[in-house]
């Protein structure tokens, strides 16, 4: 099947035509262009000249050297030819991946490009980055069998592979000819190198796509994370891959995945270029991920990734609930629920909870719940008096690794006798608003309550600071605090009416303190002195101090 010939993307249009418009250069993009890597000894004699190489002379394997004494030039070569003959070349894009840390694997010391312009990604030539190289399509139109795009100077300290991959920002490896047409270079047409006998898919000799022409027209699935055969020290694993096909620009290839021998699951709602998803709570051991892609010609390609998880599966928390009322309560009554979570890895004091209590009576309803993105440290839910009606309580927990318990089976009950009407509503005025910043170390809030049966002057209020204990209800509608630490803080308030009904949901203000925290000390404590300026490292200058002490201070 021939690759479709299309006009270049806007990126290539801008690059090629910014140089000049080409006259009638040799037409025809290759059916299956390829990009190769070639190893050679370092040389100072015009490395960018077309190499006197035949395809069978390309070197794709070399020894590694722990001493670092063996350095090589690694050339990036582009072949744009098909069965009708040599085709022109004016630009291409590609990416690289390799293994390498300080003193191990592959170290790239330098890179030189041989085109007119290059457009490298940030951190190029680090592993996982890419480049785009162009030549002037009029004066530098490449017509060699193997065009030299550039070369790396590398040292292989230990066994490692170096691989050509699609350019990461576009998900493609592409060539453009001197008439501004382009074609995709598919992963099976991208070469790779082996240093020190490093293996990839069981092969230790590297890969020259010119000597091993691939067959088949099915889509190709290329995994980039995790590496095939690698070990992962987590039971939650994130996967990413790309899909290419011999039909160019197939951005909508339907895909599905299967973990081990589980069911096939669709990925139609995912982005098309680079696919990504996570598998959670995998058992320790070796796993097999399959990804299946179907192109519009009905060809099916399946990619397989084998990997090993080296830690035990993290189990979600379990929950115990106390104080559950019977299904029918004569009333009047209150509610005194408490709970605790248990987990195989997370201590009990770090498990967080999300809960909701729904009340319905004679068409009226109320609800107390955590915010959608807010996991609470609460371990109790307490109401002195419940209005009559039907109730439904739900609870879930989450551990340090983000594994959720799932909703506990709901608790449903009905109170037949009790106050009628709705609990008071409440909101907070003054003080820092939700998600605001303040430098005031003594913020204060005023509660505004409203009730259908109790006058506002007869409402009482309870407050909670930073998830601590709720204060006793009292008539004062204002509350101030002394902030002793920088960062995020939370103030909450509830209102209670004369019938004993308490606001279903506390009014909550989360704010960030960016000022100087107040010191809390006893009257007999020594003075706390803090040097505010200057930075002592900047040399002698005038000094500014803050002095904090509770109680009288004579100076």
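^ structure tokens above, recovered residues below v
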């Amino acid at each position: 099947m021939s690759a479709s010939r299309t006009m270049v993307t806007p990126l290539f249009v801008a690059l090629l035509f910014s140089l000049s418009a080409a006259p009638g250069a040799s037409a025809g993009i290759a059916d299956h262009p390829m990009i190769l890597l070639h190893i050679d000894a370092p040389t100072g004699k015009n490395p960018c000249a077309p190499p006197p190489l035949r395809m069978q002379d390309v070197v794709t394997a070399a020894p590694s050297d722990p001493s670092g004494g063996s350095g090589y030039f690694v050339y990036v070569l582009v072949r744009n030819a098909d069965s009708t003959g040599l085709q022109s070349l004016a630009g291409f894009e590609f990416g690289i991946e390799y293994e390498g840390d300080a003193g191990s694997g592959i170290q790239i010391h330098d890179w030189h490009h041989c085109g007119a312009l290059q457009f490298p990604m940030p951190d190029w030539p680090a592993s996982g980055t890419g480049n785009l190289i162009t030549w002037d399509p009029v004066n530098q139109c490449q017509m060699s069998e193997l065009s030299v795009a550039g070369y790396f100077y590398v040292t292989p300290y230990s066994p490692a592979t170096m691989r050509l991959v699609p350019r990461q920002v576009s998900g493609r490896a592409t060539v453009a000819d001197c008439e501004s047409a382009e074609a995709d270079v598919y992963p099976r047409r991208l070469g790779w190198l082996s240093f020190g006998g490093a293996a990839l898919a069981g092969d230790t000799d590297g890969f020259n796509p010119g000597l091993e022409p691939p067959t088949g027209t099915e889509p190709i699935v290329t995994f980039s994370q995790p590496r095939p055969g690698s070990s992962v020290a987590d039971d939650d694993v994130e996967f990413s891959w790309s899909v290419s096909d011999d039909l160019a620009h197939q951005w909508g290839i339907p895909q599905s995945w299967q973990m081990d021998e589980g069911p096939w699951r669709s990925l139609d709602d995912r982005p098309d270029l680079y696919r990504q998803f996570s598998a959670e709570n995998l058992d320790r051991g070796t796993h097999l991920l399959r990804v299946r892609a179907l192109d519009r010609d009905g060809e099916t390609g399946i990619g397989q990734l084998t990997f090993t998880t080296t830690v035990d599966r993290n189990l979600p928390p379990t929950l115990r609930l106390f104080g559950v009322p019977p299904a029918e309560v004569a009333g009047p009554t209150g509610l005194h629920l408490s709970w605790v979570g248990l987990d195989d890895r997370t201590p009990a004091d770090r498990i967080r909870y999300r809960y909701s209590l729904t009340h319905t009576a004679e068409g009226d309803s109320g609800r107390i719940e955590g915010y959608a993105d807010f996991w609470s440290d609460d371990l109790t839910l307490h109401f002195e008096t419940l209005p009559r009606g039907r109730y439904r309580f739900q609870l879930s927990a989450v551990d340090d690794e983000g594994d959720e318990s799932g909703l506990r089976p709901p608790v449903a009950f009905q109170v037949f006798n009790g106050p009628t009407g709705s609990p008071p509503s409440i909101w907070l005025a003054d003080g820092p608003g939700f998600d605001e910043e303040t430098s005031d170390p003594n913020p204060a809030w005023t509660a505004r309550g409203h009730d259908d049966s109790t006058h506002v002057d007869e409402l009482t209020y309870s407050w909670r600071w930073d998830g601590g204990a709720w204060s006793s209800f009292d008539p004062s509608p204002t509350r101030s605090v002394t902030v002793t630490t920088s960062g995020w803080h939370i103030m909450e308030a509830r209102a209670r009416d004369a019938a004993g009904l308490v606001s279903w949901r506390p009014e909550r203000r989360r704010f960030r303190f960016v000022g100087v925290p107040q010191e809390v000390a006893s009257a007999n404590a020594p003075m706390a002195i803090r040097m505010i300026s200057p930075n002592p490292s900047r040399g002698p200058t005038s000094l500014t101090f803050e002095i904090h002490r509770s109680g009288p201070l004579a100076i």
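The chain has one helix and 41 strands.
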